[in-house]
Amino acid sequence: MQKQQSTAVTAITALALLALAACGTETSSTTTTGASGEDASVRESALTGVRWNVESVTVGGRRTAGVAGTSLEFGDTTQATLATGCDEYEVDVSVADDTVTVGKKRMTATADCVLNLDALNEALDAAFAGKLTSKVTGDRLTLTSSDGDVLALTSGPPAPLTGTKWTVNALASDGSAARLPAGTDGSASFTLAADGSVRGNLGCNGFSARAKVSGDTLTFSRVISTKMACTGPRAAVEKHLLKVLRGKVTYEVNHGGLWLTGADGGLAALPATTA
């Protein structure tokens, strides 16, 4: 992370998840479309020097939606860095035209994986292996294996803090993060308007509040919510958000994700268009 943050934020960045998406496939191609709209062979320069953020990974026909903070970066045509959600690897690669050949991986950092994160870690590790066909179109990259496994990535800029509908996809406490409980994916979201008003859903009840932005800090006013009775997992999500969205919290927007860290916990969220 570029900005000074707490250990909790680092944990969220490494571990935050989106819900599993429906099964799907991607098709491979050997061309890339440049700014002029003309097709050309994928060149080394199209891949290197760019932080590619994982949008989805498909292995064996099973597609998992993107992971906040998970990324792939080609330092040059021989080395890449893969952050999988649990671990970070330095990877030997060979890039020639539209083919990326993935070699040995060396783990350089690791985190404790919880609540199904091991499976995602393994899927990303499996998808980024062997010979892959690359396709770059604008700010999008796909890497496809001969078996049809696909890594879909984007280099697009982070969504703005204000005006974006943020969908909560992970909760953090005690220095670790985990995806939302089963059955609650997409239930919690919020939007911070330019005038400081905040509206959204806590996982069960709708809410409104105000937040003042100062540097890397958000200061929330008292949350006002509807009074629907909540039980089970949705009640647990709501209880956690109410602890986070109060008083001063540290925020960071990076690689398309938003991370909030307060005294009593944290959360990670992605723009609704990618959640």
Strand order of the biggest β-sheet:
3-5-6-7-8-9-10-11
CATH class value of the largest domain: Mainly Beta
Helix content: 10-25%
Predict the CATH topology of the largest domain: Lipocalin
Quote the average pLDDT.
80
- The end-to-end distance, rounded to whole angstroms, is 22 Å
Uncertain residue segments: 1-42
Strand-residue proportion: over 45%
- Rg for CA atoms: 19 Å
Question: Helix tally?
Answer: 4
Number of strands: 21
H and E string: HEEHEEEEEEHEEEEEEEEEEHEEE
Largest sheet: 8 strands, antiparallel, barrel
User: What structural category do the secondary elements indicate?
Assistant: mainly beta
> How many domains would you count in the coordinates?
2
Name given to the CATH architecture of the largest domain: Beta Barrel
What would you call the shape? elongated
Provide structural commentary.
By secondary structure, the chain is mostly beta strands. 13% of the residues lie in helices and 47% in strands. An 8-stranded antiparallel β-barrel has the order 3-5-6-7-8-9-10-11. An 8-stranded antiparallel barrel has the order 12-14-15-16-17-19-20-21. Strands 1-2 form a two-stranded antiparallel sheet. The N terminus is likely disordered.
Entry keywords:
275 residues, Lipocalin, eight-stranded antiparallel beta barrel, 47% strand, disordered N terminus
